[in-house]
Amino acid sequence: MKTQRVYTSALLLVLLAFVLCFTVPNTACAAGDRALTGELVVTNAARNQFRLVEHNGTFTAPAGVSVTELDGKPVRVEFGSDGRALQITQMPIDYAPITHGFEVVSGEFVLRDPISRTFGVYGDNRTFTIPQGVDPALYAGHLVELRLDDQGHLMSINGVTRAADAPQSPRLGTCVFGDASVVNGTSICRGGQMLRCSDGMWANTGTPCR
What we know:
Blueprint: H1 2-23, E1 34-44, E2 49-52, E3 59-60, H2 67-70, E4 74-79, E5 85-90, E6 102-113, E7 118-121, E8 124-129, E9 143-149, E10 154-159, E11 175-177, E12 180-182, E13 187-190, E14 193-198, E15 201-208
Antiparallel strand pairs: 1-2, 1-4, 2-3, 4-5, 6-7, 6-9, 7-8, 9-10, 11-12, 13-14, 14-15
């Protein structure tokens, strides 16, 4: 009976160690089957000691391994049956590529609708909204450079100086209404207000209309 009790106790201890090995993340296990991964942080360079981020405890690196060279790097640490670190292997770092970018659109600024504050660029069929605080009169009929994000949203508007020998745009002096171009002096009713094309820009005359 005594031998059976000793055998039973030893078996319980083995089972307990097995359970601790696979359920408690910071318990060193036997025979090199125990390994931890994480970022190595030096705790005592003189004694070659370190810890692992998100794991409890301090460990001593095996002979020939410099913890200072692995400081801040992801590693895999394998332990022996006595809980000592047997091997430290640096793990590769995965870098996620940055796919964000922007688009630059250049051309003549064309005011499409002064009421809804929309505009476009000559030769480009997209319509953009003028940001709050930006006066469209500063850009109407002039060359601009638009910067768009990877979703096509307007990020910025910058004026571009026209070269002295650059040919004048045939659209200067005309206004755009929808997909149509109208000549200087044309008036339209828009949003209950009379608008007049004046030097390539729609101007509100202040006259109500239907």
